Amino acid sequence: MAFKPQSESDEAMSEINVTPLVDVMLVLVIILLVTAPLLTQSVHVTLPKTAETTADVKDQPLQLGVDAQGTITLNKLPQADLSALETALKNELLQNPEIGLHLYADQDVVYAKVAEVMATVQHAGIAKIAFVTVEQ
After folding, report:
1. Is 5 contained in some domain?
2. Is 63 within a domain?
3. Longest Cα pair distance anywhere in the chain, in angstroms?
4. Pairwise CA distance, residues 27 & 118, whole Å
5. 41 domain-assigned
6. Distance of CA 64 to the CA centre of its chain
């Protein structure tokens, strides 16, 4: 065997050894090639034909709106104040304990008013609240 003189071995190695990197990349490519066909297999079934159905009116969420003047509406019926709203929400909750609520708030309404309405909804016992926005 040929040995390098001692003086040359003290120098720093300036090349990068890419062999381990190539080995790892080849393993990843093999794994990809093996698993790709397994992901594309599917079971072909013929689904039965059904007629269109309409959503059950009972399961429709409540529509709660707050306009720019602070007027509160529940299912498009104006509410006198927050206590009347809470009473109406509790009555709806007694009819359907799983009822949801969609909250429509005008962009010009004061945030404090929306917070009061949300607190009233929570106090009435309704936990499912969704905020509805409209793109312009």
Report:
1. no
2. yes
3. 100
4. 55
5. no
6. 22
**pLDDT tens for each residue of 64-93:** 999 888 899 998 899 888 999 999 999 999
Q: What is the pTM of this model?
A: 0.56
**Cα–Cα distance, 12 to 107 (Å, whole number):** 67
Tokens of 28: 């990843």
What's 119's domain CATH number?
3.30.420.270
Residue 6 lies in a domain: no
Report the alpha-carbon distance of residue 35 to residue 42 in Å, rounded: 14
* Containing structural domain, residue 92: 58-132
In the chain, the amino acid numbered 47 is L
E strands along 11-127, which residues? Answer: 62-66, 72-74, 77-79, 100-105
51 or 89, greater pLDDT: 89
